[in-house]
Design brief:
With about 280 residues, this protein is an all-alpha fold. It has eleven helices and no strands.
């Protein structure tokens, strides 16, 4: 009778599979985060080739607001449409990019509902890269709106009273604030499940910020209770700084306040957005 010896389970040789994660570069290092973010920023810009209609609102909206406010209300507010154009165009520049930030939240919500971000999650990339790439791509897209405002404003009579460096500083300051605002709306985009809901809530937030500022009228002409809100509104500070840089006037204090507001918004809303994104995906 032959006796078969059964090797104990613990002695059974096991095949050790290589840990694939060991060969993946550290995805959260500063260099890796920067590379991943720039790659996904490029993706956002490439999408414009197939969805060029996204640029229509960025080009036509500032033109419509400029025509409407300058030629309908300019004479009543300032007494001269030409003088009012010098006052209101920097404000329309700010309003345009603030309103455009709504598209960031809507786009994020749409991408998450279609499963695009599920693919990103499976890739060995930083978790913040898909969000940062989307936001940065939208901010670069805002340059189209800025160009539209300046070109149309110049055609109808707006004149810069400063140098080219001041104009570039105004654009940079406005885009910095827009970048911060995009993260506020991005939190809505990764929290809500319907793009329509993101758009509706975002506009409810944007209207008090834009129309409750000195974009279209001087603060001194408003009732006291409204002045109290206008004076603490960050959009007012962005507008004041932009006016100073484009047409002349005090800049330093307003610009400093804008930078503080922008970094405060980023410090609060970037971690909240990333945290909510990780929970949802």
């Amino acid at each position: 009778m032959t006796t078969t010896t059964v090797r104990p389970a613990e002695d059974t040789p096991t095949t050790h599979k290589p840990d694939r994660r060991a060969h993946v570069p550290h995805r959260n290092g500063p260099g890796a985060v920067a590379r991943h973010t720039l790659t996904l920023t490029w993706r956002s810009l490439v999408k414009l080739k197939k969805q060029s209609e996204q640029l229509i609102d960025l080009t036509l909206q500032p033109i419509l607001f400029t025509v409407m406010f300058v030629y309908l209300f300019g004479g009543a507010i300032e007494g001269s449409t030409h003088d009012y154009l010098q006052f209101v165009l920097p404000g329309i520049l700010v309003q345009t990019v603030v309103f455009a930030s709504v598209g960031t939240g809507v786009g994020l919500c749409t991408d998450m509902s279609t499963g695009v971000f599920d693919r990103f999650r499976s890739l060995p990339i930083s978790r913040i890269a898909p969000l940062a790439g989307t936001v940065l791509g939208d901010v670069l897209r805002f340059l189209v709106a800025v160009t539209s405002v300046f070109v149309f404003g110049t055609i109808i009579g707006f004149r810069f009273h400063t140098n080219v460096f001041a104009v570039l500083a105004a654009v940079g300051l406005v885009l910095l604030f827009a970048f911060a605002m995009c993260w506020v709306v991005a939190l809505l985009g990764v929290t809500m499940k319907q793009p329509r809901s993101v758009q509706g809530v975002s506009f409810l937030m944007m209207f008090p910020l834009t129309f409750g500022s000195n974009l279209f009228a001087k603060t001194s002409t408003m009732p006291g209770w409204l002045q109290a809100w206008v004076k603490i509104n960050p959009v007012t500070e962005v507008t004041n700084a932009s006016r100073g840089l484009l047409t002349g006037g005090p800049v330093a204090h307003h610009a400093l306040v804008v930078v503080i507001w922008a970094f405060a918004l980023m410090v609060v809303f970037i971690p909240l957005t990333v945290r909510q994104y990780n929970r949802r995906v």
